[in-house]
Design brief:
mainly alpha; Amino acid/polyamine transporter I; 14 helices
Length: 327
């Protein structure tokens, strides 16, 4: 495979997979533990995931091969552990990719409904999303992750724009934390229950390890991209919680499908609503794109090592991608 990726591409891979969790999913922690419980979950899981990111960066810099955690398990533990880890990686990324594509379909169906076209079937958009991203991955990793960098940056910028729009320097003008924030509704047991959804802010950043064989310098690009991505996610997670809990009651926030978009709708700013809709769409597409990349690298590595049929360990003669694993 070609060694063409930079720390920016590694950042785009890791943050791209995860950032959709800032636009939806994390808010279920609010339903379990209230707003403060969700904040505790955000920071506790953030600390744990920072440790995961640093460990993965260090080990991957030493064992710089496609496969990520699969390759780590093969070298550190043994073949049986490697096989199980590899299967987990493939299934996890494949299911997440499908979930992201379903989100794209639902968003398009919802958009059509707002313009009076009720009943639009989301399935064609799901299939088109997966087909286009698979084709993009087939053609080359540099273009794939360059696109991810652009759309992930736009999605992250949308969170910053939303934060600025609520006038954070003028407490009470837009955000109503004083009236909306309450004590822990279910006590500390609710905080414990909210931890599982606090992972949505960061789940997938460890996918940067899959790029180890295609970066120009694994010892530099993987740590820079991964730790930089983790810092980005910590900032995005905190801003997301701050804005959403200041605009939406925790009872509604805990069951919302698109909490950031709903928060933008409260402000009655059409341009901001459009930006947040586009950002939500881009976040889901970036996540699906990164998941296809990572699932293919794990499957390819298992094929190359004969844990799976060696047929899947082939590299395209022109594009230098694991094309059979991608398909």
């Amino acid at each position: 495979m070609l060694k063409v990726l930079t720390p920016f591409h590694v950042w785009a891979l890791g943050v791209g997979i995860v950032l959709v969790g800032e636009f939806m999913g994390w808010n279920f922690s609010v339903a379990k533990g209230g707003a403060y419980g969700a904040l505790i979950a955000c920071w506790v899981i953030g600390l744990l995931y920072s440790c995961v990111a640093m460990i993965d960066s260090e080990v991957t810099s030493t064992v710089a091969a496609a496969g990520g955690q699969y390759t780590q398990a093969k070298h550190i533990v043994g073949p049986l552990m490697a096989f199980n880890v590899g299967l987990y990686l493939v299934m996890a990324y494949t299911m997440l990719e499908a979930a992201d594509a379903l989100i794209v379909g639902d968003l398009m169906s919802g958009l059509a409904a707002t313009f009076g076209y009720d009943g639009l079937d989301p399935k064609p958009f799901v299939v088109l999303t997966i087909a286009f991203l698979a084709w993009l991955n087939y053609r080359g990793v540099f273009t794939t992750l360059s696109l991810n960098f652009v759309i992930t940056l736009i999605a992250f910028a949308a969170i910053l724009v939303l934060f600025i729009s609520v006038e954070p320097t003028n407490p009470g003008a837009v955000l109503k934390h004083e009236g909306l924030l309450t004590d822990l509704p279910y006590g500390w047991i609710g905080v414990v229950a909210s931890l599982q959804f606090g992972m949505w802010y960061y789940l997938g950043i460890e996918g940067t390890c899959q790029a180890a064989e295609e970066v120009r310098s694994a010892g530099r690009a993987i740590p820079l991209g991964t730790i930089g991505g983790m810092m980005t996610l910590l900032i995005a997670a905190t801003l997301t919680w701050y804005v959403a809990t200041g605009l939406l009651p925790w009872q509604y926030l805990g069951q919302a499908f698109t909490p950031l978009y709903d928060a933008a709708s409260i402000l009655d700013n059409t341009k901001l609503q459009v930006l947040l809709f586009i950002a939500t769409m881009f976040a889901a597409i970036a996540s699906a794109n990164g998941c296809i990349n990572d699932a293919a690298r794990a499957w390819f590595s298992m094929g190359r090592d004969s844990y799976m049929p060696s047929f899947f360990g082939a590299i395209h003669p022109v594009y230098r991608t694991p094309y059979r694993a991608i398909i």
